[in-house]
Design goal:
Layout: H1 8-55, H2 67-86, H3 98-109, H4 113-117, H5 121-135, H6 138-141
């Protein structure tokens, strides 16, 4: 059937389709941000744990060797929070406590560099682990 320029029903349907496509894109952006945040946080934790091991072999520095990894984790968690806020309206794929957990992850990850500078490396690694635990349920991490 030929399209009519003033077809209100068609316009409404197209508007709904556009809204749904935008919502799907927001979901995809959220999933990509979640994946990046968890990977960067895991990378920071792995690097911190390697550094703790190297200290046992007399390597020492007051500089946070994993500063870039932690900064990447911080930035990606902050991006995840932004993407989660974009999809928080129902219906959503956002876990029930997701946004709250992501904010707690951000609080933990920004605490990691300070104990590192004070040579409390296990505490720095624990902050990173806590951030990761807020992103991914520890039970799921072991699978």
């Amino acid at each position: 059937a030929p399209l009519k320029p003033a077809d209100e029903e068609l316009s409404d349907n197209l508007a709904l389709v556009y809204k749904n496509i935008s919502r799907v894109q927001d979901y995809l952006d959220f999933l990509a941000a979640f994946q990046t945040a968890t990977q960067n946080t895991q990378d920071a934790l792995d690097q911190e744990n390697r550094f703790v091991e190297s200290l046992k072999r007399e390597v020492n520095t007051l500089t946070e060797v994993n500063k870039k990894a932690i900064e990447s984790a911080v930035n990606s968690i902050q991006n995840l929070i932004t993407k989660a806020e974009a999809i928080k309206d129902s219906p959503t794929i956002l876990p029930e406590e997701g946004l709250k957990d992501y904010r707690l992850a951000e609080e933990d990850i920004v605490l990691a560099p300070s104990p590192h500078r004070e040579r409390r490396l296990e505490q720095a690694a624990q902050h990173i682990q806590d951030a990761l635990d807020h992103l991914i349920d520890p039970q799921q991490q072991q699978q």
